[in-house]
Predict the structure of Histidine--tRNA ligase.
Amino acid sequence: MSVFTAPKGIPEYFPPNSAAFLAVREKLVGAARRAGYGYVELPIFEDTTLFARGVGESTDVVTKEMYTFADRGGRSVTLRPEGTAGVMRAVIEHGLDRGQLPVKLYYAGPFFRYERPQAGRYRQLQQVGVEAIGVDDPALDAEVIAIADTGFRDLGLSGYRLEITSLGDASCRPQYRAELQDFLRKLPLDDETRQRAEINPLRVLDDKRPDVRELLADAPLMVDHLSPECREHYEQVKGHLTDLGVKFVENPRMVRGLDYYTKTTFEFVHDGLGAQSGIGGGGRYDGLMAELGGQPLSGVGFGLGVDRTLLACEVEGVTPGDTARCDVFCVPLGDAAKARLVALAGQLRARGVRVDLAYGGKGLKGAMKAADRSGARFALVVGERDLAEGNAQLKELSTGEQRALPLDGAVTGVLRALGGSDT
Ligand code: HAM
């Protein structure tokens, strides 16, 4: 065994599972593309202060989970823990906000959080995200949410629920926050929770301990303290979701781990995943662009966890995508047959057929085993006698059915057998 192992807490994907991973990512991305979002490719690391300022100095992500280091020029850089701050930086830097609004972007790739690894919680996690920037329209919130829901449904998932709430904005949250703090100060809470109540009282609402939950039963809730404008916005988002046929439940105690959220926030929760049940989340972040030095433009978006969505597929017994590596597996017996099949494989690939070949002079038995493992529908076997007769044997691997195919017209024959075009 090698002395090297992968860093702790990082899922790696190999065939055949990697095909399912790619299919999950592709389905989620496909839903965004169909709604007019364009792809952005952004740096994996950025200036540390971008995340500190963007995500929030008091969040766990910033205080405990960032991979931060000095590069060789002495600059403090951080592996991106999430995508929204980087997208905003790029939009401002490249002036995209001065063009047509909203700016609609999507991204896919790895993010890094130094969390305690466990099932579904990784230090390198994969997300598909979208951001719609520059228009404060509740219909856009609903669009973003519906894209995520469509992506999950396209995969065949059904065991999840969408939770939504509104976190208000600068016009109503400060008053609510003060009221919640007053309420919390009167409770017999432990020191750590008291401290949390002073720094970020909303997060106390998310406490999972039964005794604390009981104390919080009558806590004031943001949704009951929304400004008329925020309430109207929230009602309209719910109306649009209903029109779009997207089912949701309201969770007025929802707490997101990032500080930039305003108004609409949401989470997709899967019941089959245990503690790490969030398969995606997002919301509106109307103050973020100004906070990062840009125009005061609004924004709304989501990040969907590809790793966790894949786990959800496994739990529900859904197989996303095709795990077969090829359609046809060529089995040459002897050098002359090999030369013929190598050439034929090239011709078939040029016609779009996925083809592999038993390299290394494997015998018939070993080669057929390899054919089975490849997931191919057909094996194309050529022995010395076949060659002399100008034939190949096309074997359907699931049934064992076999028939001879003239080698000269083999491309057409294979295409026909696969149900494709032969012209
Ligand atoms: P987030 O809720 O921190 O939001 O992450 C989004 C999703 O990424 C989570 O729902 C989860 O599925 C996945 N995820 C997060 N941490 C881990 C982990 N350690 N291991 C595995 N999966 C994980 C954001 O990142 C925001 N940037 C989303 C957003 C975009 N809001 C507005 N625009």
Observations:
- Residues 70 and 76 are 4 Å apart (CA to CA).
- The pocket of histidyl-adenosine monophosphate is lined by residues 82-84, 113, 115, 120-122, 125, 127, 129, 131, 257-258, 278-283, 285, 301-303, 305, 307-308 (CB under 6 Å).
- The longest helix spans residues 17-33.
